């Protein structure tokens, strides 16, 4: 505008042209600015991508080196094995294999001399050592053939053994160094990868302009990302994805090539202790060392992968059951040697499940499942390595699977309680409820305890179930109390808990936690459980009863407890088993038995409950025998806790006088 007023002669067209020129210049500047920015960003991207590519190339090279050193060590050890076997047995096959291994060793060393990054000076020294070693072997073998055993032994000790030792030590050192380098390169690649994932949008914008330049680099970048995606960053082992890629190839090959691949699933024993007591840092260090040893235990072509946590898998390309067992034994042996973590010596064990690929387990997921079953059997039976067979699936594994499914169910809070009322036989009033567990299974619906408890009887998962049931029962009791109803609740207790001296404390802790009085809880035990280890069990029962909890003998009449024995048990109640009760109307024998149990109970000062009352006639007869209370479908089926009060109020008038709620005293606030 200023210019226009000063140069009044400028035509409108000139003005527009000038404006357009200025605008055009501005656009060009802007475009140039944007271009510079984009190019700068792209250059940064390119630089970083190149660094990533370099790091991944270096990691790949170090991995190749690690593999070659390991191969060389493997051949050296194999030659040594075959040599010893030949010398002791003179089997020409052993000598042939020894020669073969020596030749493989020499080839591998030669290859190493031209591999980038190899320590050529040391490799050359190793070649000399290998020649020396070979000539020593030949000398011993000639002496043996000539019958000069003593001299052969002398040469064996003076030349062969030291030479074999030097070869193994040097190769182990070199492999270790290459493996450390590989991990370092991977770490660099990972950090570059992280930087790139943040800057990728900018880099992609720049890439459009310098597409040609970046094309090649991007390809390398993808390779790097792939390497990252298939490598476990902690141990530099292949991860689950890489295992599945290798397995697909190996298993596809099975039928056409007639190979017998197998899969080993490993889980460290005692790793959690290391993690918990020494910390994650040392746990990680231990895993790195384990990975290193595992890598040394397999031959080229086989795959060892880390699946996560302390779980590893080994895929063997051939050899079926025998090679599977052999490698499992080797792994157990090499992991048995103590590890040095920090300054400490640490022992870990390993449980191994072995599964051989068959028509029934043709793919990786089936193999993993079978190996997993076998691995759990190995853990349960403390048998280091177990080969999967179908029987495992039928019996033990059913249980093993059930146990692990129940653990999962507990983690996801899938157990629910139903409550069955217990009523007085004289006036029908509600005396309490029995808590009965059910499993709200995600696919199978609501499962009754008979469908999942019997197989796991005695297993430690039972403890978690008991705690869960006790917790839920007491929480429900507290809820009722808050609504004004004092309803005692009974919980079924397995034998395991009665043998656990800490169980009473657990019970009183839970009572305290929910503020429920002890006499509101009744524990139902069976006769047989109290007979397992009577002394310990009676002592636990005494402690429980001393705290005020009530004890009831469940299913009475099905076990063999004598009257004298019963007298010694600190109990309050007897529950006559359903099997007698059901028949008392039509079978006089059952009626007599029930009557004598009632009398026995009363003589011992116990209250007696009839279980499984399904109709009024049974209830009437029970009442006439003097039985105190009853439970059964005739009165009520087990029901969710929320329904108990409406059931209760539905059969008797709502109490006019609500029983005061039992609460802990409110904390006093002092001025
Ligand atoms: P139990 O302790 O003898 O429990 C009574 C069982 O009889 C319950 O079966 C109940 O539903 C059933 N029942 C009640 N009245 C009648 C009736 O009139 N007729 C018939 N036919 N059956 C009746 P449920 O709930 O299937 O439990 C079965 C067993 O599982 C229980 O027998 C108990 O031994 C065990 N159980 C249940 N819950 C738990 C628990 O939380 N922990 C433990 N350890 N065991 C439990
Ligand atoms: Ca019971
Ligand atoms: Ca019972």
Outline the fold blueprint.
Elements (H helix, E strand, L loop, with lengths): L1 H5 L5 H78 L2 H22 L6 H26 L3 H61 L1 H19 L10 H18 L4 E8 L1 H8 L1 H18 L5 E6 L2 E6 L3 H17 L2 E3 L2 E3 L2 E8 L7 H18 L3 E3 L2 H5 L1 H16 L3 E10 L5 E12 L3 E3 L13 H22 L6 E4 L2 H4 L4 H12 L6 E6 H6 L1 H13 L3 E7 L6 H6 L4 E4 L1 H4 L6 H16 L3 E4 L5 H10 L3 E2 L8 E2 H11 L20
Parallel strand pairs: 6-7, 9-11, 11-12, 12-13, 13-14, 14-15, 15-16
Antiparallel strand pairs: 1-3, 1-6, 2-3, 4-5, 8-9, 8-16, 8-17, 9-10
Helix pairs in contact: 2-3, 2-5, 2-6, 3-4, 4-5, 5-6, 8-9, 9-10, 11-13, 13-14, 14-16, 16-18
One calcium ion (CA) binds next to loops.
Task: Based on the model shown, name its key terms.
single chain, 671 residues, alpha/beta, five-stranded mixed sheet, 23 helices, binds ligand C2E, binds calcium ion
Structure description:
This protein is an alpha/beta fold. It has 23 helices and 17 strands. It has helices spanning 2-6, 12-89, 92-113, 120-145, 149-209, 211-229, 240-257, 271-278, 280-297, 320-336, 364-381, 390-394, 396-411, 461-482, 495-498, 503-514, 527-532, 534-546, 563-568, 578-581, 588-603, 616-625, 641-651; strands at 262-269, 303-308, 311-316, 339-341, 344-346, 349-356, 385-387, 415-424, 430-441, 445-447, 489-492, 521-526, 550-556, 573-576, 607-610, 629-630, 639-640. The strands form three sheets. The protein has an eight-stranded mixed β-barrel, surrounded by five helices. A five-stranded mixed beta sheet has the order 2-3-1-6-7, sandwiched between helices. The chain is elongated. The N and C termini lie far apart (79 Å). It binds ligand C2E and calcium ion (2 copies).
């Amino acid at each position: 505008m200023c210019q226009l007023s000063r140069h009044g002669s400028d035509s409108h067209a000139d003005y527009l042209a000038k404006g357009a020129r200025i605008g055009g210049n501005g656009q060009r500047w802007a475009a140039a600015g944007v271009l510079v920015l984009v190019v700068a960003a792209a250059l940064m991207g390119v630089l970083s991508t190149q660094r990533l590519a370099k790091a991944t190339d270096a990691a790949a090279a170090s991995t190749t080196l690690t593999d070659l050193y390991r191969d060389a060590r493997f051949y050296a050890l194999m030659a040594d094995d075959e040599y010893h076997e030949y010398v002791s047995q003179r089997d020409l096959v052993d000598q042939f294999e020894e020669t073969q291994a020596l030749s493989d060793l020499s080839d591998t060393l030669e290859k190493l001399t031209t591999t980038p990054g190899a320590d050529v000076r040391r490799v050359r020294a190793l070649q000399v050592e290998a020649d020396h070693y070979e000539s020593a072997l030949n000398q011993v073998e000639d002496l043996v053939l000539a019958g000069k055993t003593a001299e052969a032994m002398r040469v064996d000790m003076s030349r062969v053994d030291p030479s074999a030792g030097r070869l193994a030590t040097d190769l182990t050192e070199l492999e270790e160094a290459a493996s450390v380098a590989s991990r370092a390169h991977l770490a660099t690649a990972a950090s570059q990868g992280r930087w790139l994932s943040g800057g990728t949008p900018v880099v992609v914008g720049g890439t459009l302009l310098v597409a040609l330049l970046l094309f090649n680099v991007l390809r390398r970048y993808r390779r790097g990302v792939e390497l990252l995606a298939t490598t476990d960053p902690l141990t530099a082992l292949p991860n689950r994805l890489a295992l599945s890629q290798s397995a697909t190839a190996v298993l596809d090959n099975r039928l056409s090539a007639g190979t017998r691949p197998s899969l080993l699933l490993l889980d460290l024993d005692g790793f959690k202790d290391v993690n918990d007591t020494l910390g994650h840092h040392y746990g990680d260090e231990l895993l790195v060392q384990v990975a290193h040893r595992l890598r040394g235990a397999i031959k080229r072509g086989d795959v060892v992968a880390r699946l996560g946590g302390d779980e590893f898998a080994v895929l063997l390309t051939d050899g079926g059951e025998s090679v599977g067992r052999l490698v499992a034994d080797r792994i157990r042996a090499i992991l048995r040697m103590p590890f040095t973590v920090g300054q400490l010596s640490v022992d870990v064990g390993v449980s191994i499940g072995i599964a051989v690929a068959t028509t029934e387990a043709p793919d990786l997921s089936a193999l993993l499942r079978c190996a997993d079953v076998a691995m759990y059997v190995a853990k349960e039976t403390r048998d280091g390595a177990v080969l999967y067979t179908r029987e495992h699936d039928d019996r033990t594994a059913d249980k093993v699977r059930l146990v692990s499914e129940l653990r999962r169910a507990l983690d996801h809070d899938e157990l629910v309680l139903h409550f069955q009322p217990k009523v007085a036989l004289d006036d029908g009033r509600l005396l309490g409820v029995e808590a009965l567990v059910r499993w709200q299974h995600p696919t199978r619906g609501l499962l009754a305890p008979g469908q999942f408890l019997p197989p796991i009887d005695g297993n430690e998962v039972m403890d978690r179930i008991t705690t869960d049931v006790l917790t839920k029962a007491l929480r429900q009791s507290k809820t009722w109390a808050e609504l004004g109803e004092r309803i005692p609740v009974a919980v079924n207790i397995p034998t395991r808990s009665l043998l656990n001296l800490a169980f009473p404390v657990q019970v009183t802790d839970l009572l305290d936690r929910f503020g429920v009085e002890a006499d509101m809880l009744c524990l139902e035990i069976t006769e047989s459980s109290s007979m397992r280890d009577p002394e310990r069990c009676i002592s636990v029962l005494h402690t429980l009863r001393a705290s005020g909890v009530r004890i009831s003998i469940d299913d009475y009449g099905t076990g063999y407890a004598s009257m004298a024995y019963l007298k010694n048990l600190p109990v309050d109640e007897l529950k006559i088993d359903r099997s007698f009760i059901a028949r008392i109307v039509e079978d006089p024998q059952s009626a007599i038995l029930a009557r004598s149990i009632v009398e026995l109970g009363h003589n011992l000062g116990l209250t007696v409950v009839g279980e499984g009352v399904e109709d009024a006639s049974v209830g009437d007869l029970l009442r006439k025998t003097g039985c105190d209370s009853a439970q059964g479908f005739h009165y009520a089926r087990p029901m969710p806790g929320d329904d108990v009060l409406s059931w209760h109020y539905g059969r008797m008038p709502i109490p006019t006088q609500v029983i005061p709620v039992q609460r802990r005293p409110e904390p006093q606030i002092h001025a």
